[in-house]
Every structure is written in structure tokens, then in C-alpha cells.
Design a protein that fits this description.
heterodimer; A: mainly alpha; 20 helices; elongated; B: 36 helices; disordered N terminus; disordered C terminus; repeat (chain B); Serine/threonine-protein phosphatase 2A 65 kDa regulatory subunit A beta isoform (chain B); ARM-like (chain B)
């Protein structure tokens, strides 16, 4: 794909009439992404399933037995990359799965103890597989079309069946926990990396149900999600199901009991906050911000570490991410308690002051929108004696030199608001603006001189140690 | 804060620490990067007692700053007072080894490993090993991950009781709850095995290896594969089968393609580690399976190893194994559905011909080569063509030439310019192998067609290609075949084609020599100086500057100079500029073979040049020597100064008024001469007479012999002002790694 892209990128702007070079390379129409299936080890020979009677056609006593047989048949996995093979049997399995879905939804008394291992086995055989390598070298979820799972016609029904099974009134976690164990959950979590969004959506529901019904697995699930996120942040930066996992976590956090356990706080600070550093933040930012705000609503005392964390990971080069951070910060400020606000206002507004003076107008604009938020305005007003001096320099400078007139207009409004809030301080800052700048410049000069001296010293020392200059 | 000299008390720690705390991250980062300077200012004792505790306490910072800090501390031994005190560095590094960010942690571990060697055995046990233990039993996974990298550096130098403890810690980490730690342990398993006594390799490592290789996470299992290869090299042959092979066999058939990929990727190492017998019995079938794997990634990795694997097969059965087991798989890969697999194979398949010999190559491999030459994917064809030399040795290229030609022609006209570019680069090689006749007949027209390609990069590569062809086939060939065609393009209605003529002349003049250049090329260049397009005109000026060195001085004065002077009064600003550049370049320096391409720095004086960017255009500069009078040889990255010949009086003044700047390139030397009245390298503007004198001096000196003697003395362009101060800096910073008197080719 690198080749294809570059040939498109070489189109020079036509400079001159004399240019007689016709451009020969016309970019080929983009090829449609072929669907890729997960790894499939073909057994070589066609799969034969003996058709069984419909469940509704046999007597009630025979049904559990037949149900088991059908589950066993559905363990057979077909190769969907080969669109021509086993057509009849694929269709048979599809209709059987459909029948099973209906059966677990409406029937009563079918869930014998023997059925549990068979259900879990059938589900495992179908859904657990090593996900294939991504088609494109570097799959960019924002740009590239996801590769869809070829075996979806069967897979969807298996997921559907499993969810109905978990939600069934007869379902007994105490029996199921023997089969739906840590290993099962681990494999389930690995599937969240699937490129197919339809599959991830089903997985989300499945995991959510399991978390709800199996109390013994909860801590394990949280820990494994931790591990997935840490690996995602610090090792691979690649995992397709982050948004889905965060969505589940959002509802989990909602249910945390107070006071929060140390484990949960650690999760917030050591896992959720670092998730902001990932390049593909935009894909799960909404869910992440939701989780963070959930935490803060549970325990306002966490505000300071959260905001400090965000400031630590504040994006330096990616304006798009910066806008997202500002959005999240506003969500946090919406629920912040005034006592917490006072604790972090200084570092916070230093950052906001930098954002306001960003040459990227979207960043500046997003930051300036804070002044439209009544709650934030009230907080600023209460603390104007601290915030105004921090903000003043940037605001004053932008009002003079920002390239974007819309920003300048917004800044004027903000300055006006400050003036109304605290006119004495405002006048004072205006009058000392120049001398403050000069003082800064002087300080800067002193810094430079210090370093120059330090370097001279180092130079001399090394010359001495080399014996070039006598000691 | 006044006073600059060396009294340490003048640098209160507070001021320095203020710098390290600066609000601006960039400034903080800069300060940290110069931490050694700060330490130097403080002296060893205060570095130990004041700076290091500060650094240990304020570890909470941006990761970028922490990374710089972790790196700095690795080189701090001398700054804290030498090996005796090196353990002072452990506390800050220990904290750094526990941070979240992987790059910081890795750097901290790297630094710890580095300074571990500077510990005495006693210090290692008293200070270093307890640190490793603390890390290994840390609460959060980060410290445990870092610990994994430290076992192998301290193990060999501690007592046997401590050794036992270290082994125990490693064992614990291999079965850690967190997969991140298990991954770290798995990746260091091989390294750790290497420092262990053989009995412990057998008793401890093997069981760890087996456990990691059947971990529930494929990311752990795949790391165990590499460890397996290292372990196999350590064990005696008779233990391999029982201890390692079952696990490796299982890895080759792992259900995760990532693990199988890893096996394929490490296959050659594995083969060397296990020896010929196991290779024959186990690896051959395993390799066949990998070549037939259901994932293309795995097949491509295995295909990449085909040649190496075959080469390393035991000689007695090599041919049979290849013919009966490997070749059938290779044949299938030639028509694989995945282009990466095919192109991986194409990059190595030619190598098989040397292994199999002439007859087998013709019978079995040739059809495969030919099939790949016709492959739909250009990368496959390119890979075949780029490896033609292997086949050439065995069966001669003629066997292929019938199929080769269409393949080359097709690539030459490929719609993607990068493909065209790639094939151009192989042209000189192909020309050499196919011979001049074949080339003239079939390929010459292609080479000329590229000159009018619509992509500049192709035209540029095509001119360069012509130069290389002339180097191969000689000036006479050039005069008969390509020069007329190139010069013909000077009349083309398209100005881009006309410019291509100039670019070709630039490239060809030197290889074609003075006669052809003066007789045939120069008139065309002159004619083009009247071109109506300004771009062509200023390229004429540039060309004249470039080909100047090839021409004799008479011609330069009587013919070239007037043309340039005319261009210097052109209406167009750029034409004027380049003409003036050429005039000053040619006639001030007299020799323009090597032009100093000084990057201008933005300073008040516009004609001041930054020394660090001094470099010669065209040829990469191998050496430039500048020397201060009282420093006999001073060294720096690109520049140093030759010992100048100056009087004692001058020397006493500290400056010489004349010194040589020597630039040496791979095959020739150029010597610039600097003159100065006041400062060493600052030259006052030279007036016309001085210039004249300088030129005379040069002529006089031309006879002086220099080792490679092709160089000429030239005076550096007036007013190249090099600050002494800057030279100091460069000398000192690059000193360790640079030897000016060792000429590299």
C-alpha cells in the first residue's frame, strides 16, 4: 500500500505551460478489501453432519438428549474463506443454531446439568480462535475499513445463543462456574482484539453478563482488563476492543462500593490516566472520559491526582488530542467541588493559559469556550486573584498578535469578563505588563549566562584532564 | 553569581536545582541533558551529597525528562568520584526502574547494567544485588519487569549463596501473575541461561523454559522460542532431544500464528543450535510445515529462510533433502496467493542455485525463476532481478536473458515510479553481467527513455545511471552511444528535457574526461545560455561551475568566464545569482572540484559560517583537519586543523596567520589554505590583488607532493569566519570517537 500511496503523492502542481510531461501513472481504483477469516486449519475432507429431527417434533423427555446432540453437531467449524465448500452443511448448521437460539429463549426445563459443559464446549469451539494477522500492515481503525469476520453467519448465531443462555431464567451460575472459568474468560478477553465491530459488540454483552453473574470472576476480569490496557499503553499500542472494555468498566465503576478500595484507585491512576497517552485516543476517548468522571463522582478527593495526571500527559504535538483533553477537562470541571478546584487551580490554569495561546485556533477556541460555562465561570470568579495573574499574560499577548480574528474576539470577551470580575487587579496587571516582560527577559539572560559559565568550566576541566591546559 | 572561574562555591546547588525545576519542560529537559555539566560544577562530593538525593526525591516528572535522566546517570561514575562511589547512583536509578513508561524503565535498566560492571564484587553484593531483590519483589509489575534484566549482570560475580537466591527470584518472576513480567522474564531467559552453570541450566532453566513455552498467552510463548534457541546452544548434543526438542516441536505447531512466525523467523539460529542430526530428523519436516502454513505471515517468514536453511543442511544429505523435501514446497510458494510470500521467496530463491549446482538449477530452479520473472507483482520480479549475480555464477545469465528482457522492459514502464526507480538502480549491475553488446541492443533505449520520464526522481536516477554505465563501459562508448543522444535533447521543445541535458552533462563530464567535455559538451552548454527559459539559464551557470574542474584553465578564462559574466548581468534574479556564485566559486577558489558548502547561520554578520555544518558539496567529507598552533593535533567530527607553519612570534601571540585546512576524501585530498591577520580563521576581505597572489601561490604549490597528490591548494573563500570558540567545543565533544589520521574509505 505504500507504493500505491506514494504514486498518488507525486503529482506535482503544474508549474509551467511548457511542461510537456503527460502524467502516465493513473492511480488504480482502490481494491475492495477481501474478507479475511480467522485461522482455519482445514482437515482436508468435507464435514458430514447427519440431519437430526427438529426439537419441537420430539417429545419433551427426548428434548434434552436431542439438545445435547445438536450442541455437539454445532461444534463442527467450517471454512468460510472457501465459499464453495460444504454449502449444504453450512446451511444445516445455520438452521440448527437458529433453532437452538429459539429453543433456549422459550423452552423451560431444558437446562440439565449435563447441558452446561456441552454449551460451553460448543461456544468455545466456535468463538475461540487465534485472530488472524491484520491485513493492512498498520491497521488504522480511523482510516481503514475493518476486516470483517468471514464466518459471521455462524458466529453471530453462536454469540446470540450464548447470550440467551446466560440470560435464561433457568441459568444457574453455581453450576456454570465449573465451566465458565478463568481460562474461559481469558480467551474471551483476547477476542476483544477482533477487527470486526459486530463481534466486539456481542463480546461486550457476553462479558458484561458474565461479570454480573459470576461474582467469583469479577476481580479476575478486572485484573485481566488491567493487563490488556497496560500492554496496550506500554507495549503494543494496538488493541481493537479498548472502547468496548471501557464501556463495560464504566458500568462496573458505577457499581463500586464506597469508600473505594485501593485497588480501584490504583486502576484509575496507573491504568486509566496513562490510557490518555495512546496515539489512537480518539477511538475510545468518550468512554474513557466517562469512566474518569464516574470515578470523580464516586470520590471527589481523586480530582487532584486525575487532573495532575492529565497535565502530565498533556499532548505536546497533537492538537486533535489537545482538544479532546480540553473537552474531558471541562467534563471534570463540571463536577468538581470548589474545595478540590482550589487545590489544582494553579497548574491547571497554567496549562489552560498555554492552550489559549496555542497557534492552532481549534485548541485556543476550545479552551476559551470554558468562559461560556457558568459553573466554571463561577469558580474562576471566586478565585480570580489567583487565576487572573496566570492567564493575563497570554490573554494580553493574544489580543495583540493571534492570527485568527475569531480567537482575538473571544479573548476580548474573556479580558472583559476579568475586568468586570476584579478591576483593581486587572489594572495593576496591565500597568506592570511591560516591566514583567523585561524582568523575564533579564532572567532568561541570566540563565544563559549561567550555562555559558558552566560550559566554560566543563571545557576547562576536560582540557585539564587531557593535559592540554596545565592545571 | 558573579565571576566565572572555577570556584565551586560559585554554583550554589539551589541555582542549579532551579534549572532542573524550571517550569518549561523543554528547559528542564535541556538542563537534565547537561546534568554532567552541573555535576562537574558541583564537584564529586556535592554531587553525591546534594545533587543525587535531590534527583532521587523529585522523580515525578515528564517521561521525556526521566528518560534523559536515566541515560545521564549511566555515565555518571566519574562524576560521583569513580567506581568506589558508583553505588551512590543506585537510588535514583532504582526509582527510575519502577516508573510506568517502558522506555524510561528500559533506559534505567540499561544504565544499571552499565554501572553494574563498575561495582567491585563486594559492592555488588552489598548494594547492587539487594536492589535487584527489591525490584524483583516490588508491588507493582514495573519494578519486577525491570528486575528481569538485571539478574544476568550480577549473577557471575556473586557468591554461591547469593547465586541461589538470584535463581530463586528469577524462578518466581517466570511464574509471575502479570503477563508483562512473564514476558520480560521470557525475553531474558536466554541471556540468564548463558551465565548460569550448566547443572543449573539443566535443573532450573529447562523447567522454566517449558513452562513459559506453554504459557496461556501467546505473547509469552513466542518469546520463549528465542530463549529456546539460546538454551539449545548451551546444552550438550545428547541432552537436546530430551530437554529442548519436545518444547520446540510444540512451538512449531503452536495454535497461534505469532508463535509459529517466531519459530520461522529464528529457524536458521535454531538449526545451528541443534546440529545436523536433529535438523535432519526434526527440523526438515517442521520447516516443510512452516512453508505450508495457513497464515501468509508465517509462510513469508519461512520463505525468507529457505536459502539459509538449505545452506546449513549437513553436506552429505543436503542435495537429497532439498530435492525431495524443500523444493516441492518452494515450487508451491512460487504461485502462492500472497504477494509478500512470493516476494520473500524471490529475494532468496536465486541463492539456491549455488547450492544445487548447474544441472539442478537448469532443470528445477530455472522454471521457477522464469515464473517469478513473469509474476504479476513487481516486487517479486525486482527481487529476482536484484539477485541475478547468484545465478550468473552458476549457469550464466544468458540462460535467463530471453525472459529477463521482457521483465525488465515491463518494470521499466511500470506505472509506479518507485518500481521504475528500483529497476534503474540495477541497470549498472545488469549491464555489467549482460555485456556491452546485449546492452546496446536491448537496454540502451530504455536508459534513454528514463531521461524523459515525467517524474523528476526517475530523471535524476537516470542521469546517475548514465554516469555509472560510462564508468563501466568507458568514455569511448559514451561518446559513440549516449553523448549524442543526450546532447540532442538540448534542442527539445520541452524545457525540462533541455535541463536534463544539463544534468547529464554535470554527471558525465568527469567520467568522460576533458576532451569530450570541452569538444562536445561545452559548446552545447554555451548555446543553452541563450535559452529563453530562465531555469535553463541558471542551470547553465550551475553546470559551468560543476564542470569547471574538468576544463583547463585557459578554457575557463577565455571561454567560460565571458559566458558567466554575461549571465551575471541577466535580467532574471536567479540567473544572476547562480552566475555570480559560479564566478566566485571558480575564480576565487580556482579549484571548484570541492566546494565548501557552508551552511549559513543566521547571525548579524551574514557571512559567518557555522563550523559544525561545514561540509563539502557532492562528496561526503571524510576528513578536514584544522589545528591550533599549540595543539598539535586536534580532533573533531568533520573538522580539525593541520599544524600550521607559523613563526615563534606568531605562536606567542596565540594565533597564526596562516594555517591549512585539509579536507580529505576517499580518493583525493584537497587542501584549503586560510589566511588571517588578526584571528586564526577570520579572514579579512581579500582584494583582487591578494586573490591573484593566492592563485600564484597555489600554482607554485601544485607541484608539491601530497600522498594522493590529486589535490590542489586553494585558499578558503575570503571571510569564512570560524570562531575559535566553536572549534574548542567540537574538539572536545567528539574527541573520543574520532581519529583524524585514520582515513576511512
Amino acid at each position: 500500500s505504500a507504493l500505491a500511496m506514494s504514486s498518488a503523492a507525486t503529482t506535482p502542481p503544474s508549474v509551467d505551460k511548457v511542461d510537456g510531461f503527460s502524467r502516465k501513472s493513473v492511480r488504480k481504483a482502490k481494491q475492495k478489501r477481501s474478507q479475511s477469516s480467522s485461522q482455519f486449519r482445514s482437515q482436508g475432507k468435507p464435514i458430514e453432519l447427519t440431519p437430526l429431527p427438529l426439537l419441537k417434533d420430539v417429545s419433551a423427555q427426548e428434548q434434552p438428549e436431542l439438545f445435547l446432540k445438536k450442541l455437539q453437531q454445532c461444534c463442527a467449524v467450517f471454512d468460510f474463506m472457501d465459499t464453495l465448500s460444504d454449502l449444504k452443511m453450512k446451511e444445516y448448521k445455520r438452521s440448527t443454531l437458529n433453532e437452538l437460539v429459539d429453543y433456549v429463549t422459550v423452552s423451560r426445563g431444558y437446562l440439565t446439568e449435563q447441558a452446561y459443559p456441552e454449551v460451553v464446549k460448543m461456544v468455545s469451539y466456535n468463538i475461540f480462535r487465534t485472530l488472524p494477522p491484520s491485513e493492512s500492515n498498520e491497521f488504522d481503525p480511523e482510516e481503514d475499513e475493518p476486516t470483517l469476520e468471514a464466518s459471521w453467519p455462524h458466529l453471530q448465531l453462536v454469540y446470540e445463543f450464548f447470550i440467551r443462555f446466560l440470560e435464561s431464567q433457568e441459568f444457574q451460575p453455581s453450576i456454570a462456574k465449573k465451566y465458565i472459568d478463568q481460562k474461559f474468560v481469558l480467551q474471551l478477553l483476547e477476542l476483544f482484539d477482533s477487527e470486526d465491530p459486530r463481534e466486539r459488540d456481542y463480546l461486550k454483552t457476553v462479558l458484561h453478563r458474565i461479570y454480573g453473574k459470576f461474582l467469583g470472576l469479577r476481580a479476575f476480569i478486572r485484573k485481566q482488563i488491567n493487563n490488556i490496557f497496560l500492554r496496550f499503553v506500554y507495549e503494543t499500542e494496538h488493541f481493537n476492543g479498548v472502547a468496548e472494555l471501557l464501556e463495560i468498566l464504566g458500568s462496573i465503576i458505577n457499581g463500586f462500593a464506597l469508600p473505594l478500595k485501593a485497588e480501584h484507585k490504583q486502576f484509575l491512576v496507573k491504568v486509566l490516566i496513562p490510557l490518555h497517552t495512546v496515539r489512537s485516543l480518539s477511538l475510545f476517548h468518550a468512554q474513557l472520559a466517562y469512566c474518569i468522571v464516574q470515578f470523580l463522582e464516586k470520590d471527589p478527593a481523586l480530582t487532584e491526582p486525575v487532573i495532575r495526571g492529565l497535565l502530565k500527559f498533556w499532548p505536546k504535538t497533537c492538537s486533535q488530542k489537545e482538544v479532546m483533553f480540553l473537552g474531558e477537562l471541562e467534563e471534570i470541571l463540571d463536577v468538581i467541588e470548589p474545595t478540590q478546584f482550589v487545590k489544582i487551580q494553579e497548574p491547571l490554569f497554567k496549562q489552560i493559559s498555554r492552550c489559549v495561546s496555542s497557534p492552532h485556533f481549534q485548541v485556543a477556541e476550545r479552551a476559551l469556550y470554558y468562559w461560556n460555562n457558568e459553573y466554571i465561570m463561577s469558580l474562576i470568579e471566586e478565585n480570580s486573584n489567583v487565576i487572573l495573574p496566570i492567564m493575563f499574560t497570554s490573554l494580553y499577548r493574544i489580543s495583540k498578535e493571534h492570527w485568527n480574528p475569531a480567537i482575538v474576539a473571544l479573548v476580548y470577551n474573556v479580558l472583559k469578563a476579568f475586568m468586570e470580575m476584579n478591576s483593581t487587579l486587572f489594572d495593576e496587571l496591565t500597568s506592570t505588563y511591560k516591566s514583567d516582560r523585561q524582568r523575564e527577559k533579564k532572567k532568561e539572560k541570566e540563565r544563559e549566562e549561567l550555562w555559558k559559565r558552566l560550559e566554560d568550566l566543563e571545557l576547562k576541566r576536560s582540557l585539564q584532564s587531557d593535559g592540554i591546559i596545565p592545571t | 553569581m558573579a565571576g566565572a572561574d572555577s570556584d565551586d562555591s560559585l554554583y550554589p546547588i539551589a541555582v542549579l536545582i532551579d534549572e532542573l525545576r524550571n517550569e518549561d519542560v523543554q528547559l528542564r529537559l535541556n538542563s537534565i541533558k547537561k546534568l554532567s555539566t552541573i555535576a562537574l560544577a558541583l564537584g564529586v562530593e556535592r554531587t553525591r551529597t546534594e545533587l543525587l538525593p535531590f534527583l532521587t526525591d523529585t522523580i515525578y516528572d515528564e517521561d521525556e525528562v526521566l528518560l534523559a535522566l536515566a541515560e545521564q546517570l549511566g555515565n555518571f561514575t566519574m562524576l560521583v568520584g569513580g567506581p568506589e562511589y558508583v553505588h551512590c547512583l543506585l537510588p535514583p536509578l532504582e526509582s527510575l526502574a519502577t516508573v510506568e513508561e517502558t522506555v524510561v524503565r528500559d533506559k534505567a535498566v540499561e544504565s544499571l547494567r552499565k554501572i553494574s560492571h563498575e561495582h567491585s564484587p563486594v559492592d555488588l553484593e552489598v548494594h547492587f544485588e539487594p536492589l535487584v531483590k527489591r525490584l524483583a519483589s516490588g508491588d507493582w509489575f514495573t519494578s519486577r519487569t525491570s528486575a528481569c534484566g538485571l539478574f544476568s549482570v550480577c549473577y557471575p560475580r556473586v557468591s554461591s549463596t547469593v547465586k541461589a537466591e538470584i535463581r530463586q527470584h528469577f524462578r518466581t518472576l517466570c511464574s509471575d501473575d502479570t503477563p508483562m513480567v512473564r514476558r520480560a522474564a521470557a525475553s531474558k531467559l536466554g541471556e540468564f541461561a548463558k551465565v548460569l552453570e550448566l547443572e543449573y541450566v539443566k535443573s532450573d532453566i529447562i523447567s522454566l523454559f517449558t513452562a513459559l513455552a506453554s504459557d496461556e498467552q501467546d505473547s509469552v510463548r513466542l518469546l520463549a522460542v528465542e530463549a529456546g534457541v539460546s538454551i539449545a546452544t548451551l546444552l550438550p548434543q545428547e541432552d537436546l532431544e530430551a530437554l529442548v526438542m519436545p518444547t520446540l516441536r510444540q512451538a512449531a505447531e503452536d495454535k497461534s500464528w505469532r508463535v509459529r512466525y517466531m519459530v520461522a523467523d529464528k529457524f536458521s539460529d535454531l538449526q545451528k543450535a541443534v546440529g545436523p542430526e536433529i535438523t535432519k530428523n526434526d527440523l526438515v519436516p517442521a520447516f516443510q510445515n512452516l512453508l505450508k502454513d495457513c497464515e501468509a505471515e508465517v509462510r513469508a517468514a519461512a520463505a525468507n529462510k529457505v536459502k539459509e536453511f538449505c545452506e546449513n543442511l549437513p553436506e552429505d544429505s543436503r542435495e537429497t533433502i532439498i530435492m525431495t523435501h524443500i523444493l516441492p514446497c518452494v515450487k508451491e510458494l512460487v504461485s502462492d496467493t500472497n504477494q509478500h510470500v512470493k516476494s520473500a521467496l524471490a529475494s532468496v530463491i536465486m541463492g539456491l542455485s549455488t547450492i544445487l549446482g548447474k544441472d539442478n538449477t537448469i532443470e528445477h530452479l530455472l522454471p521457477l525463476f522464469l515464473a517469478q520473472l513473469k509474476d504479476e507483482c513487481p516486487e517479486v520480479r525486482l527481487n529476482i532481478i536484484s539477485n541475478l549475480d547468484c545465478v550468473n555464477e552458476v549457469i550464466g545469465i544468458r540462460q535467463l536473458s530471453q525472459s529477463l528482457l521482457p521483465a525488465i522492459v515491463e518494470l521499466a514502464e511500470d506505472a509506479k515510479w518507485r518500481v521504475r526507480l528500483a529497476i534503474i538502480e540495477y541497470m549498472p549491475l545488469l549491464a555489467g553481467q549482460l555485456g556491452v553488446e546485449f546492452f546496446d541492443e536491448k537496454l540502451n533505449s530504455l536508459c534513454m527513455a528514463w531521461l524523459v520520464d515525467h517524474v523528476y526522481a526517475i530523471r535524476e536516477a537516470a542521469t546517475c545511471n548514465l554516469m555509472k554505465l560510462v564508468e563501466k563501459f568507458g568514455a569511448e562508448w559514451a561518446q559513440n552511444t549516449i553523448v549524442p543522444k543526450v546532447l540532442g535533447m538540448a534542442n527539445d521543445p520541452n524545457y525540462l528535457h533541455r535541463m536534463t541535458t544539463l544534468f547529464c552533462i554535470n554527471a558525465l563530464s568527469e567520467v568522460c574526461g576533458q576532451e569530450i567535455t570541452t569538444k562536445h559538451m561545452l559548446p552545447v552548454v554555451f548555446k543553452m545560455s541563450n535559452d529563453q527559459v530562465a531555469n535553463v539559464r541558471f542551470n547553465v551557470a550551475k553546470s559551468l561551475q560543476k564542470i569547471g574542474p574538468v576544463l583547463d584553465s585557459n578554457c575557463l578564462q577565455t571561454e567560460v568566464k565571458p559566458v558567466l559574466e554575461k549571465l551575471a548581468s541577466d535580467q532574471d534574479m536567479d540567473v544572476k545569482y547562480f552566475a555570480q556564485e559560479a564566478i566566485s566559486g571558480e575564480f576565487c577558489n580556482c579549484c571548484s572540484r570541492v566546494l565548501c558548502n557552508f551552511a549559513k547561520t543566521k547571525v548579524s554578520n551574514p557571512k559567518r559560517y557555522s563550523l559544525s555544518k561545514l561540509r563539502l558539496c557532492h562528496a561526503p567529507l571524510k576528513r578536514l583537519v584544522l589545528t591550533r598552533p599549540h595543539i598539535s593535533t586536534s580532533l573533531c567530527g568533520n573538522i580539525s586543523i593541520m599544524p600550521p607553519k607559523c613563526s615563534r612570534k606568531e605562536r606567542r601571540r596565540g594565533f597564526s596567520n596562516r594555517s591549512n585546512v585539509e579536507a580529505a576524501m576517499s580518493d583525493r585530498r584537497c587542501v584549503f589554505q586560510c589566511e588571517s591577520k588578526s584571528t586564526l580563521f577570520g579572514l579579512p576581505e581579500v582584494d583582487a590583488r591578494a586573490r591573484e597572489r593566492a592563485r600564484e601561490r597555489e600554482r607554485a604549490r601544485e607541484s608539491e607532493s601530497f600522498p594522493t597528490s590529486k589535490g590542489r591548494y586553494i585558499s578558503i573563500k575570503a571571510c569564512q569566519h570560524i570562531l575559535l570558540h566553536q572549534i574548542h567545543k567540537i574538539m572536545i565533544f567528539k574527541k573520543a570517537s574520532y581519529d583524524p589520521f585514520k582515513l576511512k574509505n
